[in-house]
Amino acid sequence: MPDRREGVALGPDGLRSLDGLKAATMACRECPIGEFATQSVIGEGKLKPRLMLVGEQPGDKEDLEGHPFVGPAGKLLARALEAAGIPREQTFVSNAVKHFKFELRGKRRIHKSPTQREAAACLHWLEDEIALVRPRALVALGSTAARSLVGRAVPVMAERGHWMQREDGRKVLITLHPSALLRVLPDDREEAFAAFVKDLKQARKLLASATPAA
Ligand code: URA
User: Fold this and answer.
1) Domain layout of the chain by residue ranges
2) Which residues pair with 175 in a beta bridge?
3) pLDDT tens for each residue of 141-163
4) Is any ligand 1 atom within 6 A of the Cβ of residue 114?
């Protein structure tokens, strides 16, 4: 449970700012991923937003540039948010895991999914971030984010487009990770994109409602 001092919600590590989170995650070696990544990548966007979107981990481009969702999956996410009527600048976008995990094949760095243990090691940083950002609700992009946000394995295909609840009371919309859409066969891409946008439209309803962030 976040600690509260001087009216500021503090996460499990008592961090007071996103700069503090960046510095702490840069130094983090609680799992083996951090040692090989260029840098940690924390979230960016609006504070106290109606929506915080959480992906899996930074990709190759994000690792090099230090910003979340700036590569191909990020571009697809941006298109889907626009199609769903969700201005990205009104959201905060982050990841469950703060370092890029990859396997070297020749000179190429190939994405590797984080293990459950690695995602669990990163969870306290994500909780710090949520405590600092104070979103009203969250969107879990894929199974790693869903497990980190609701604390148990979530069957994403069965639960997509549905809201779940976290222990802190915040609602979490479950949907796919945009990179899953990048792997869909060309003939099925339009339909897959439309289904993703339909999921995100559930979250759009929240932007229109009156209750401010906690
Ligand atoms: N995939 C993610 O989950 N996050 C990013 O920032 C980029 C790709």
Assistant:
1) 7-208
2) 141
3) 999 999 999 999 999 999 999 99
4) no
Do β-strands 44-45 and 3-5 pair in parallel, antiparallel, or remain unpaired? unpaired
Q: Which regions of the chain does DSSP assign to beta strands (E)?
A: 3-5, 8-10, 44-45, 51-55, 91-95, 102-105, 108-111, 137-141, 163-165, 171-175
Q: Which of 95, 112, 175 to mutate to test ligand 1, by most ligand atoms within 8 A of the CB atom?
A: 95
209 alpha carbon to ligand 1 midpoint, in Å? 28
Q: What is the CA radius of gyration of the chain?
A: 16
Burial profile 140-164: b = 16 or more Cβ within 10 angstroms, e = fewer:
bbbbbbbbbbbeeebebeebbbeeb
Residue 93 CA: nearest ligand 1 atom is 6
**DSSP code of residue 212:** P
**Would you say the pTM of this structure is higher than 0.90?**
yes
For residue 167, the tally of other CB atoms under 10 A from its CB is 8
Tell me the CA–centroid distance for residue 180 and ligand 1, in Å.
11
CATH superfamily entry for domain 7-208: Uracil-DNA glycosylase-like domain (3.40.470.10)
Distance 60 CA to ligand 1 centre (A): 9
CA angle 63, 160, 194 (to 5 degrees): 80
